[in-house]
């Protein structure tokens, strides 16, 4: 079944604490602005942002079951659980909320890890997740500043901050994020 935007907002907002819904609203606002600035579709950016964290607070065993029962990218299951909600979010958007636009589904799926060959919409949603107004972590203002001038530059700085954090905690890095970062740097070099 297809949901209206208002219906989506209602069903998604009830699946997370207020604070996370506020974050989602910040991502909606920022993703639309970035889409307008960098030539992505603002309507798709808004929908992907509404849904990006829909599964963030689902029980971890539910996420694991959905990923393994539906043959979603199950290499994810041997990496950080924090990555799982993005894959499940795309699945739920498609199977429960009738989103059939692959660009929107991919932007949800890759909003945390990134991927090689990120689309404009992937980049917008992933960067918006780093810099929405409610975010407050060391270096966020630098990422915001870079994002004013370059979508890829802002995103590389965002991914670098995640990679640095993981390195500093000696945590295992899901390699797709490193590949995404390298690919964005290549794109920037090719365009300079
Ligand atoms: N490549 C990766 N490998 C392992 N963990 C990762 C990777 N990328 C992101 N993460 C984890 O996911 C977290 C960010 O997930 P995100 O959905 O943006 O959550 P939040 O919105 O709560 O910051 C990071 O802080 C890190 O712990």
UniProtKB/TrEMBL annotation:
Keyword list, A-Z: Hydrolase, Iron, Metal-binding, Nucleotide-binding
This enzyme's EC code(s): 3.6.1.41
GO molecular function: bis(5'-nucleosyl)-tetraphosphatase (symmetrical) activity; metal ion binding; nucleotide binding
HD domain boundaries: 20-134
Catalytic activity: P(1),P(4)-bis(5'-adenosyl) tetraphosphate + H2O = 2 ADP + 2 H(+)
Organism superkingdom: Bacteria
UniProt cross-references to InterPro entries, sorted A to Z: Diverse_Catalytic_Enzymes (IPR051094), HD/PDEase_dom (IPR003607), HD_domain (IPR006674), YqeK (IPR005249)
Protein name per Swiss-Prot or TrEMBL: bis(5'-nucleosyl)-tetraphosphatase (symmetrical)
Species name: Paenibacillus glacialis
């Amino acid at each position: 079944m297809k949901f209206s935007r208002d219906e989506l907002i209602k069903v998604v907002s009830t699946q997370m604490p207020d604070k996370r819904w506020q974050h989602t609203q910040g991502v909606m606002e920022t993703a639309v602005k970035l889409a307008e600035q960098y030539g992505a579709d603002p309507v798709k950016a808004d929908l992907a942002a509404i849904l990006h964290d829909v599964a963030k607070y689902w029980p971890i065993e539910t996420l694991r079951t959905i990923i393994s029962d539906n043959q979603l990218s199950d290499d994810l299951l041997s990496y950080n659980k924090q990555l799982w909600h993005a894959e499940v979010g795309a699945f739920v958007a498609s199977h429960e909320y009738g989103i059939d636009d692959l660009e929107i589904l991919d932007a949800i799926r890759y909003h945390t890890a990134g991927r090689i060959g990120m689309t404009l919409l992937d980049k917008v949603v992933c960067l918006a997740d780093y810099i929405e107004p409610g975010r407050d972590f060391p270096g966020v203002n630098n990422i915001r500043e870079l994002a004013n001038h370059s979508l890829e530059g802002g995103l590389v700085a965002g991914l670098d901050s995640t990679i640095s954090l993981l390195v500093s905690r000696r945590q295992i890095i899901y390699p797709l994020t490193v590949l995404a970062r390298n690919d964005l740097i290549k794109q920037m070099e090719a365009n300079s």
